[in-house]
Design brief:
By secondary structure, the chain is of the alpha/beta class. Helix content is 31%, strand content 18%.
């Protein structure tokens, strides 16, 4: 059996230009989706890396009125907890985009039912899922050694404790059904995990992501640390 095709990789000189290139990809796919189907759905992961990408959408021609933004993962915390991914998501998006966010209901009393509720709110097929990459190889809240890695009968599930928090996350089957995956990976500390991701290493959670249409934006620091210096940089 042949190895799965890897993502299209674009290397930018620095983290900000990688984020700008990713933002251009998001807005381009959004306009195409609206032209083809009348709407666009995006799911965004937590972490620090998506902030500059989302802020960059303010300068692009995003069809916000036809867009809906979902969360890929979220910490189990109260609505006003500053550690929530939602806090960074809302602050990074331009105002028109912030109003289009559908938050994960992680402050619900019954979290298992909340997972079912969020899964039902998702479209049959998400147009684009943004994924980040941790230095430990995690993506979304699919973290090393967690039982959630083996959940195949749910689209949204709960994790165990990770960095002192449980999480709600999209699962592998839901990620696999998206029309496309967009990775944004920056920083030299991500280099070893990036090399393993591109090698489809199943020993890290990110290496198990299966989707036929993937594009990966990274900066030169991550690319060099991953041994990708031969890849031509994208235009700043």
């Amino acid at each position: 059996m042949s190895a799965p095709a890897g993502p299209r990789v674009e290397v930018s000189p620095d983290a900000l230009s990688a984020a700008a290139a990713a933002a251009a990809e998001v807005s381009g796919r959004a306009r195409a989706a609206v032209g083809d189907r009348g709407s666009f759905t995006l799911a965004v992961s937590g972490g620090r890396s998506p902030g500059p990408m989302l802020a960059g959408l303010a300068a692009d021609d995003m069809p916000w009125a036809q867009a809906t933004v979902f969360q890929v993962d979220e910490r189990i915390a109260a609505a006003d907890d500053p550690s929530r991914n939602l806090t960074g998501l809302l602050s990074a998006l331009p105002g028109a985009g912030a109003s289009r966010v559908v938050p994960m209901p992680v402050d619900a009393d019954d979290l298992d039912s909340a997972c079912v509720q969020y899964a039902r709110a998702l479209p049959t097929t998400l147009d684009l899922i943004h994924l980040g990459l941790g230095a430990d190889g995690h993506t979304a809240s699919l973290v090393p050694g967690d039982p959630v890695l083996d959940v195949h009968d749910l689209d949204v599930a709960l994790t165990g404790q990770y960095q002192d928090r449980r999480r709600m996350t999209l699962t592998y089957p839901r990620i696999a059904r998206a029309r496309a995956i967009l990775w944004l990976v920056t920083g030299a500390d991500k280099g070893p995990a990036l090399a393993r991701l591109l090698a489809h290493d199943p020993e890290i959670p990110a290496g198990r992501v299966a989707n036929p249409t993937q594009v990966l934006f990274c900066d030169a620091a991550a690319a060099d640390a991953a041994g990708l210096s031969a890849v031509s940089p994208a235009a700043p």
